[in-house]
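User: Predict the full complex structure for these chains.
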Amino acid sequence: MTGRLLVAAAAAAIAVAPLVASTYHVLLMLPFMAYAVVLLGLNLLFGYAGLVSFGHALFIGIGAYTGAFLTSHCKIRSLEVILIAAAALGALVAAPVGALCVRYVKIYFGMLTLAFGMVFHTFVLKFYRLTGGDEGTPFLRPSLLGRSLEAMPKIDYLVGPYYYYSLAVLVLATLCMWRIVHSPFGLCLKTIRDNPAKAETLGIGVTRYRFHAFVISAVYAAVGGALLGPPIGNVDPTLAYWTHSGNIVFMTLLGGFTSFFGPVVGAFVFIYLQHWVMSVVPYWRLIFGAILAAIVIFAPGGLLGLLTPRRAAVRL
Amino acid sequence: MILVAEGLRKLYGEFCALDGVSLGVAAGEFVSIIGPNGAGKSTLINILTGLTPPSAGTVRFKEREIHGLGPVRLARLGMARSFQLVHIFPDLTVLETLQAAVVARLGRGTRLFASLARDRDVQREALEVAELFRLSDKLGALARHLPQGDKKLLDVASAFALRPEIILLDEPTSGVSTADKTAVMETLVGASRRIGLQAIIQVEHDMDIVFAYSDRIIALHQGKVLADGAPSSIQADQRVIDTVIGRRGRAR
Amino acid sequence: MSQHVVNVLLSGVFHASILFLVAAGLQVIFGVQKIFNLACGSFYALGAYVGVSAVGWYTAAGGPPALFIVPLALAGLAVGAVGLVVERGLLSFVYERDETFQLLLTFAVVLMMEDAIRLTWGTAPRSTAGLYLVYGQTHLLGATVPVYNLIVIAASLAIAVAIGWLLTRTTFGRIVRATADNREMAAALGVDLRRVYAKVFTLGTALGTLGGALVIPATAAMSEMGIELIVEAFAVVVIGGLGSMRGAFVGALVVGILRSIAISTYPELEMLLIYLIVITVLVLRPRGLFGGAAV
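Assistant: Here is the predicted structure of the three-chain assembly.
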């Protein structure tokens, strides 16, 4: 019960933030919400299926570049179309990549996903005529629910309509993932995470379920990636670099991969902490590296794992 | 004959684990496989359940060759197994473990958006199996926290939850205290009648259990079948006594 | 052979020589400790920056330019001691854990070292400028090549031979190979695993830092060099096979030369080709050319 109350309180806080918090903090909520969507998907793969992908930035990149392309080159501004296109493209690429990668486990899975991620990165970096190279492609202001809000000043757009739109997407994504995780499918995923050999003897095809988890997580990453674009206004190849993949795994671990909302908490803490650290000293990586090391060594369950000890199973 | 194996051989490099093992299990039989350690019993089970391919020989389940099918397909065809070293899902509860088996059996694993908690069929069947195996009061316990004997029971129970036609148990009472062993076996036999199991094959070391419950006993020694017959004939077989049973009827 | 082709080949072999050192470090660590050290690129970068500083102090102190390679190499080797600190201070706590956590710990080291280097040396590229030309240039098979590059290639070859000798002819080498093969057995036979791990990790790190130091005269130390090199090193060990020294050697040659060819023909393809080969290898023959057990 307390868990649900906390979630409700957090949701309420996020909903009223634009009215009470400073613009600076509200603006930070935008990448937080985008990463929260990405991480909800990533944790399906990590926390529920037991696979660590070091190339998920690939799908973030796909989502972001889809939006940039549609707005810059195809004159399509509808965010609904962009999000659907991002999801579709994410799934399209995830199908062959996933089919290949899920046949391997642990370190080989990590290596394969890293390689695919870097293929995409090299592609968007080198084919500059198409993608703008390291300068990237602009992601122009999308229209929300059919209403073009070009006239609005950028900040008002971002902390107003765009904020609530992102929140709606996040809420939808959360509800969807909640259902997935608590479905028969979700249970089967957990069995293959815990003991693939035994799962097989129950008739649960390990590779098939991993594949589905991979594609779903890719769709989430692409949607989140598309949401990342508008506040910055530009998407560039660093979104697809392998260290970006490492960072999102870090966020998941930070919040706690054994709990449903852990990754969301991780995204929040990561983004706010990063900004706070950078305002004091530019060496956030040094501090964050130390934090990651501390988590791995002392608190592998992440922040939520510390707050609720002995909770090995994934549940809220 | 539900399960037939012919001329099974298994080589690990130079080491020959199985050397020409043939056996057949008919509907209604409770077969025990006995033998000293290293006789090849676990290897045999692994081959019969499709986990390991044999170096030579065939296995037929319900008239169908199992070569290349793998454990997943075999499970769907009606074969279930439990493991010698306890195999559980450490981070799932007892209820979840049983639910998983039922979900797999009912083919509902692809339901992404259905609520597991509200699936009445799954709940009902999972609770039924839990009751059969006296795990009803432990439904919420994490599998990793169960005592060893209960872990074993859970492993067997989840195999039973598949409502298989044949079940292969690798040392179902090992790690269970002597007092509980009979209880476990009674549960097993009772449960099998309830779910319409056609045949049980078990690997077992405890000779009291073996002689009390088996219709037929197969004695393995150094990768070969030493004897195959009713308990009475096995008990009288000198070779089996020398290698497996020993004087006082307990093998170790 | 045309001059152009020779240039491409020599440039590829030079790059391969450096790659080999880093990859060898990666391999020995993976082979023995089963840890994929993401930070090997960071150690390479560290060696590079330390090398620049060492050479800087050396020339400022008035040392003869012709011997600059001595402080360079020594500094590169010496800073490999950082590996011991990382191993004892961080890695040793996670040996019993899932390899995912070990991998993430090395990623933490990557993050920390990236900023540690920035903190110490700033973000502007550092180089030893034209110092390496003190050895002059020579003509080989029709092309002009700096003698320094040939020295590095020779040194790398010598180190390869030395590693081979170390692994096959010395007691330490036998212990290392036994531990790589079967650590439980090695421990049961009395091998002190913790000391072996410490030594192996330090050795692996030192190879990386040395590689970074040696490459400096020919290029420049830049802030991204660590995280960029790891992907190349990763390609080398996948192609060559995880844990294999021969694999590091052959893989380095393959990657080094292919990259050189790609740069001179289709620059866009540079790393793309390498990654596609990595994916192909991982799919068709996951254990690479000389890798151990099947995956």
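The beta strands of chain C are 137-140, 143-146.
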